[in-house]
Amino acid sequence: MSATSQTLRDEIENGIVTGEFPPGERLDEVQLATRYGVSRTPVREALMQLGAIGLVEMRPRRGAVVAEHGPERVFEMFEVMAELEAMAGGLAARRHGDNDKAAILAALEQCQNAAEKNDTDQYYYENEIFHRAIYTASHSGFLEEQCVSLHRRLRPYRRLQLRVRNRMKVSLAEHCEIVDAITAGDAQKARLLLRHHIAVQGDRFGDLLATLRP
Amino acid sequence: MSATSQTLRDEIENGIVTGEFPPGERLDEVQLATRYGVSRTPVREALMQLGAIGLVEMRPRRGAVVAEHGPERVFEMFEVMAELEAMAGGLAARRHGDNDKAAILAALEQCQNAAEKNDTDQYYYENEIFHRAIYTASHSGFLEEQCVSLHRRLRPYRRLQLRVRNRMKVSLAEHCEIVDAITAGDAQKARLLLRHHIAVQGDRFGDLLATLRP
DNA sequence: GTCAACGAATTTGTATACAAGAACATTGAA
DNA sequence: TTCAATGTTCTTGTATACAAATTCGTTGAC
């Protein structure tokens, strides 16, 4: 694995999570190779890695396609994400230090700024930083890795989520409550709030389905 | 990815989780290639995949080594595993059908048989089947995948766990309680029991440390 | 007109060749 | 004796070549 292979992996992964390569799209080896100006070998190695983490589906002798999950599967992924986030929040409530608290509060403030400007893209970006700050505050490196990884994997399915009416305001209000619970050291409350914050339920299930049926 | 590459990936992964390739061991490409009678290309592809899921560490230009985690990291992995198992158990309590229940009871019985024969290896094997039955009963395909994957990853660190005094009997007793909670539909209780069943705590933390310091 | 079968062309999987960087040993000086 | 420098060797990373399989198009029969 050299810089090329690693870079390629990131490039393709980025293309997937940003929607440039939508779910179901075929990833042609020679096409990618010419596009990035390399041979097929590093492209294949990059695809193998993405296949191992579930971002692309490798069909033997039939090429790679961007992983395409059905609604139930995506729902299940959000379920697990909610649980991992809840765990991170609970640990953060008990373990966070001054630096962690400062990072979380700063991220919350940036979320507030974006919400006031009604800038959905900016909020989306700051939201990610906010959640990562909580992962870090959990002081569990492995949990942080798992959360970041799953978060990335869910990005293609969450991109449109925030565009639904009032979602940004509701999300921000929930963020405030979560921060209160964490800084107060209330692990149980932080868990419940985060699980609810992430979980796909009620109306949002319909929203999710809508994003999956283009 | 052909049969060779896929097989190779499984072979090496198996070698890692069975301890044939212990943590920290260098995985030489040509050595593996000659051993399995193939060229370096499929070996590299297999290693890439194992690197992507964290079983081996890929150091650029310096080869691959079996991932070697420090005690804290392993502890964190068990923490996450406990949470995922708890989640699976909770879902299983609410969602299990007749087939699921039968599979869990059958697995429990096999655990009992192994325990009566004092057969640690057999118990280790049946224990895995028991836990997988719970994953399946959660009726969340994604959660099941995550649990199986993390379970495999922890195998090298759990192999010796069951050998400590009385661990098998305690484990079996916990299994019985867990089954009671699941079949009774008591999700909350199943969660608590499973979290405790998996979590590394008290004396077992010392046991874990012991297995990590050879 | 539809479907099946056969053949060409594209594409994947593996091996090999080559280039570049890292590990290692040998030699020399302090 | 120890340490540093340099050259050799070994290993990794990438490209290319070739083999095998799948896909697609064409042709033919019903």
UniProtKB/TrEMBL annotation, chains A, B:
Q: Name one GO molecular function term.
A: DNA binding
The record's annotation in Pfam families points to:
FCD, GntR
Segments forming domain HTH gntR-type: 2-69
Q: Which SMART domains has this protein been placed in?
A: FCD (SM00895), HTH_GNTR (SM00345)
Q: Which PROSITE patterns match?
A: HTH_GNTR
Arranged from A to Z, the UniProt key words for this protein are: DNA-binding, Transcription, Transcription regulation
Which PANTHER family does the annotation name? TRANSCRIPTIONAL REGULATOR, GNTR FAMILY (PTHR43537), TRANSCRIPTIONAL REGULATORY PROTEIN (PTHR43537:SF49)
Protein name (database record): AsnC family transcriptional regulator
